[in-house]
Amino acid sequence: QVQLAESGGGLVQAGGSLRLSCAASGRTFNLYGMAWYRQAPGKEREFVAGIKWSVGTAYADFAKGRFTISGDGAKRTAALQMNSLKPEDTAMYYCNCASGAFWGTGGYWGQGTQVTVSS
């Protein structure tokens, strides 16, 4: 089992910034990356950004140019720097990882951290 601990959500005005952090613990020996997803009320959970440790990163179109994912494979951590936040970024943000993969919806999830952007 893998446990994911997230932190860093909060309330921010439009145009502001937030940084989310995630740390994995437990059986982390076959993790190859981590990702962030988000879910707004009444909407499906969607991919935000992912990091493939020592390989590269991937972003959803809405995140490109505003969000930056970083991480440390040795420490099994990932962070999401979010700039130029918009009210539509308001959602619960979840950290994700998967055994034997970079990330995946069938893998492990954190408890979520709320991000609220006011207009």
Summarize the main sheet. 7 strands, mixed
Beta-strand level of the residues, as a percent range?
over 45%
What's the pLDDT, averaged over the residues? 96
Low-confidence spans: none
Q: Would you list the SSEs in sequence order as H and E?
A: EEEEEEEEEEE
The helix content is under 10%
Computed CA radius of gyration, to the nearest angstrom: 13 Å
The geometry reads as globular
Extended strand count: 11
The SS-based structural class is mainly beta
How far is the N terminus from the C terminus?
A: 40 Å
Structure annotation, total helices = 0
Question: Your description of this structure?
Answer:
By secondary structure, the protein is mainly β. Helices cover 0% and strands 54% of the residues. The strands form 2 sheets. Strands 2, 4, 5, 6, 9, 10 and 11 form a 7-stranded mixed β-sheet that branches. Strands 1-3-8-7 form a 4-stranded antiparallel β-sheet, with no helix packed on it. The radius of gyration is 13 Å and the shape is globular.
Describe the secondary-structure layout.
Elements: E1 2-7, E2 10-13, E3 18-26, E4 33-39, E5 46-52, E6 56-59, E7 67-72, E8 77-82, E9 91-97, E10 108-109, E11 113-118
Parallel strand pairs: 2-11
Antiparallel strand pairs: 1-3, 3-8, 4-5, 4-9, 5-6, 7-8, 9-10, 9-11
Distinctive features:
119 residues, mainly beta, seven-stranded mixed sheet, four-stranded antiparallel sheet, 54% strand
